């Protein structure tokens, strides 16, 4: 058995897709009270883009802290990227460091839509000898923040070809992911109209305080000439309002004729039933 293989029991390795692996180094300087993380390279990453490649970068967290993350540069069109980037977590007492989990998430950078997670590695720092830099190769695991845990949104679309308009009605959400320490969220919804990947117009709902099953019932009207419909995307983002730091994204929905199967079905239903509000539940995605 190779080291580390025993914790993979119960997974039939033939069914698990190969997500590639990442090489990185970790060490701690007691003199400087600094944790050093070096992201070296990755190998055999899966292709995420239509062009058969990926534009990978790495996000680095020390969990449970999700607010402070560091990121590598994006390596364009490269499934075996070399980063060789060094990150310093300075002024970090050792007794705090050993309570943290080093979490690396490899993502495929996408200019126009959400960055696609490729895979992740987590390493509890209390398991390591941090007195000198140690280098690891780790297999990437599927990202655990799966779409199922973000909640769902009910919305309706109403297309009026003679008025060249679409009415988006944000009806309600259910089982939203709690983003705040108190185990709740303060959700609101942003609606962006995109044409050929350019932002045209933005609308947003009111904020619902401390509520994971909010009812919004707010309608927004967008002017969209019929000939532009094919190149139009409506991006719906459920946000958690945060007074002290920046607002967190709970999840997104991309509505167009070329997004995911559920979204495309809703778009086609809307066009097939003009002047009728067509409602559908959508799973929020990362």
From TrEMBL:
Alphabetized UniProt keyword annotations: Repeat
InterPro entries assigned: C2_dom, C2_domain_sf, C2A_Synaptotagmin-7, C2B_Synaptotagmin-7, Synaptotagmin
Domain C2: 18-138, 149-282
Pfam family, one: C2
Protein family: Belongs to the synaptotagmin family.
PANTHER family reported for this sequence: SYNAPTOTAGMIN, SYNAPTOTAGMIN-7
Name used for this protein in its record: Synaptotagmin-7
């Amino acid at each position: 058995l190779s080291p580390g293989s025993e914790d993979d029991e119960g997974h039939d390795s033939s069914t698990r897709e190969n997500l590639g692996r990442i090489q990185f180094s970790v060490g701690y300087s007691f003199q400087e009270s600094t944790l050093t993380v070096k992201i070296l390279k990755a190998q055999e990453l899966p292709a995420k883009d239509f062009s058969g490649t990926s534009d990978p970068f790495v996000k680095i967290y020390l969990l449970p802290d999700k607010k402070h993350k560091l990121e590598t540069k994006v390596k364009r069109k490269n499934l075996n990227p070399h980063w060789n980037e060094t990150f310093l977590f300075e002024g970090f007492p050792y007794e705090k460091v050993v309570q943290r989990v080093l979490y690396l998430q490899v993502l495929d950078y996408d200019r126009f839509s959400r960055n696609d997670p490729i895979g992740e590695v987590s390493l509890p720092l209390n398991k390591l000898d941090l007195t000198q830099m140690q280098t690891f190769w780790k297999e990437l695991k599927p990202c655990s923040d799966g779409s199922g845990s973000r909640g769902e949104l009910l919305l309706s679309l109403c297309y009026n070809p003679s008025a060249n308009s679409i009415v988006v009605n944000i009806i309600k959400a259910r089982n939203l992911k709690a983003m705040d320490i108190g185990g709740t969220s303060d959700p609101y919804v942003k609606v962006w109209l995109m044409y050929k990947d350019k932002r045209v117009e933005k609308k947003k709902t009111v904020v619902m305080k401390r509520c994971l099953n909010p009812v919004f019932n707010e309608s927004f009207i967008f002017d969209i000439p019929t000939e532009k419909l094919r190149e139009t995307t409506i991006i719906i983002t459920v946000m958690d309002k945060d007074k002290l730091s920046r607002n967190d994204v709970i999840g997104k929905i991309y509505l167009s004729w070329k997004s995911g199967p559920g979204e495309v079905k809703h778009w086609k239903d809307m066009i097939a039933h003009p002047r009728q509000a067509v409602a559908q539940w959508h799973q929020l995605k990362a």
